[in-house]
């Protein structure tokens, strides 16, 4: 909004030229989202506590000590992330950019699904939320609409194409499969982030790392000179999403202030589904869906651990892990929660560096 309001007057006031730079507005988005988190965080947490007498329902089949340590902690803290993210993006981004609105839509849409799920858990005092089929259907509908919208903005040949890491300017035409693939990326990323959100501070740092990486990626693919130099696919207009990524990093930092062990508030499905959906959509716009699997490798590992556990138990009656997702396996092995969280952060950082390396190794 500031860009749209102030930049037209740059010829009269040279200082307003700053708003033409994506890097300047990204920095502003980070700081703004962080300040919004600090401003609204305490009253929001107090309000959530007043509304949630017993806090988030704890899984009966989860680690036993969670019933003692985490009982009474309010959930739906993802509302704070969404508020800070959306307000900061609206303030600093170019609102004529349709990619920005697509990401805002998917963030709020998946956030609404997560909020409905969290509310159902709280009202029924159960760790089971809305029925899985209903939840998945809603996610597919929103992801399908978002994918179609993004494909229309991208235009051909990018709309139906997939870029291959390590190969220069290579586009694989997916044809009609591009739509279900896009839905899979968005829904899969959203639920992978959701599975990772199981310990205090565990999910939010890898989320910030992933969005930090995509801040760089969207900036590069949106810039003709840099994309040509690196021989990566140029996506006109994608650079503006660097501002969105910066806003998410700022919102994530603010949320981590309250989510650091011991957490004052949980993200809940409200936060994990919304930022996961936004991350998947971002990768589709930037044409780096496969690179997302590397950068977000921690989310992939957590999801695979659940799939392997369920498949093994159904086929053989035996469990591969002591408990799934993977972070609970290490809890059952006796690792302290901060140890698991920090080591998983390290893994996320290493995978992020590996993902960024694909920009140059071509």
Description:
The protein has 362 residues and is mostly helical. The chain contains 15 helices and 2 strands. It has helices spanning 2-6, 22-51, 66-69, 78-92, 98-124, 132-154, 178-196, 204-221, 224-230, 241-259, 268-286, 289-295, 297-316, 326-332, 337-357, and strands spanning 161-163, 171-173. It has a two-stranded antiparallel ribbon with strand order 1-2. The mean pLDDT is 91.
What is the average of the pLDDT values? 91
Helix proportion range: 55-70%
Strand order of the largest sheet: 1-2
Shape: globular
SS-based class:
mainly alpha
Rg estimate, integer Å: 20 Å
Give a quick rundown of the structure.
With 362 residues, the protein is mostly helical. 67% of the residues lie in helices and 2% in strands.
What are the key terms here?
single chain, 362 residues, mainly alpha, two-stranded antiparallel sheet
Break the fold down into its secondary structure elements and pairings.
Elements: H1 2-6, H2 22-51, H3 66-69, H4 78-92, H5 98-124, H6 132-154, E1 161-163, E2 171-173, H7 178-196, H8 204-221, H9 224-230, H10 241-259, H11 268-286, H12 289-295, H13 297-316, H14 326-332, H15 337-357
Antiparallel strand pairs: 1-2
Helix pairs in contact: 2-4, 2-10, 4-5, 4-10, 4-11, 5-6, 5-11, 6-7, 6-11, 7-11, 7-13, 8-10, 8-11, 8-15, 11-12, 12-13, 12-15
């Amino acid at each position: 909004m500031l860009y749209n309001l102030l930049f037209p007057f740059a010829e009269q006031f040279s200082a307003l030229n700053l708003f033409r730079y994506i890097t300047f507005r990204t920095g502003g988005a980070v700081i703004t989202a962080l300040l919004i988190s600090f401003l609204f965080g305490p009253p929001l947490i107090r309000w959530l506590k007043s509304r949630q007498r017993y806090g988030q329902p704890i899984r009966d089949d989860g680690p036993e000590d969670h019933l003692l340590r985490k009982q009474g902690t309010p959930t739906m803290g993802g509302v704070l992330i969404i508020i800070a993210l959306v307000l900061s993006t609206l303030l600093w981004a170019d609102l004529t950019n349709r990619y920005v609105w697509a990401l805002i839509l998917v963030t709020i849409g998946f956030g609404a699904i997560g909020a409905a799920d969290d509310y159902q858990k709280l009202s029924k005092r159960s760790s089971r939320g809305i029925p899985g089929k209903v939840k998945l259907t809603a996610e597919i509908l929103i992801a399908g609409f978002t994918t179609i919208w993004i494909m229309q903005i991208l235009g051909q040949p990018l709309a139906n194409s997939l870029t291959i890491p390590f190969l220069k300017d290579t586009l694989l035409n997916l044809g009609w499969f591009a739509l279900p693939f896009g839905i899979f990326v968005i829904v899969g990323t959203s639920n992978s982030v959701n599975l990772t959100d199981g310990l205090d501070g565990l999910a939010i740092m890898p989320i910030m790392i992933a969005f930090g990486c995509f801040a760089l990626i969207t900036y590069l693919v949106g810039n003709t000179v840099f994309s040509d130099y690196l021989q990566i696919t140029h996506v006109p207009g994608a650079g503006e999403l660097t501002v969105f990524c910066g806003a998410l990093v700022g919102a994530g930092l603010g949320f981590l202030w309250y989510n650091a062990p011991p957490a004052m508030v949980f993200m809940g499905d409200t936060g994990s589904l919304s930022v996961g959906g936004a991350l998947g959509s971002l990768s589709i716009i930037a044409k780096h869906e496969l690179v997302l699997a590397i950068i977000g490798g921690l989310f992939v590992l957590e999801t695979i651990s659940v799939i392997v556990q369920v498949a093994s138990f159904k086929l053989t009656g035996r469990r591969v892990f002591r408990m799934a997702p993977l972070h609970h396996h290490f809890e059952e092995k006796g690792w302290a929660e901060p140890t698991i969280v920090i080591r998983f952060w390290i893994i996320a950082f290493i995978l992020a560096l590996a993902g960024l390396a694909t920009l140059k190794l071509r």
